[in-house]
């Protein structure tokens, strides 16, 4: 059976618009390229991505909602760890000596395309918060 979009009356369907709006605001703060935005969202078709971006609404699947949830958690942790918002946003792009990153930036790790890498970065930041 082919996967279908969520019916409008499910709780997940109600999350689509707010999740996408939050993601696109986050992408602006982090100065993410379009290709990086698509990769972080799980590589939706280009037409779907631009529709979401234009309308700031839609019904992304559970995988995309999960990805956005991790990204928002990463953003929140960075805001807590760094008192200066610009410093928090810049951390994502800077090389990191922690073994988890192997000298690469957290963003590079997150752009692997695997939702597990978003989870790992979020766990790392949550551990840094204590």
Automatic annotation (TrEMBL):
Which parts of the sequence belong to the Antitoxin Xre-like helix-turn-helix domain?
A: 13-73
Sorted alphabetically, which Pfam families does this protein's record hold? Answer: Xre-like-HTH, Xre_MbcA_ParS_C
Task: Identify the domain of life.
Answer: Bacteria
What InterPro entries does its record include?
A: Xre-like_HTH (IPR046847), Xre/MbcA/ParS-like_toxin-bd (IPR024467)
Domain (Antitoxin Xre/MbcA/ParS-like toxin-binding) ranges: 77-130
Query: Which GO molecular function annotations are given, in alphabetical order?
Result: DNA binding
Name the record gives this protein: Uncharacterized protein
Q: Which organism is it from?
A: Rhodanobacter spathiphylli B39
Q: According to the entry, what is the taxonomic lineage of the organism?
A: Bacteria, Pseudomonadati, Pseudomonadota, Gammaproteobacteria, Lysobacterales
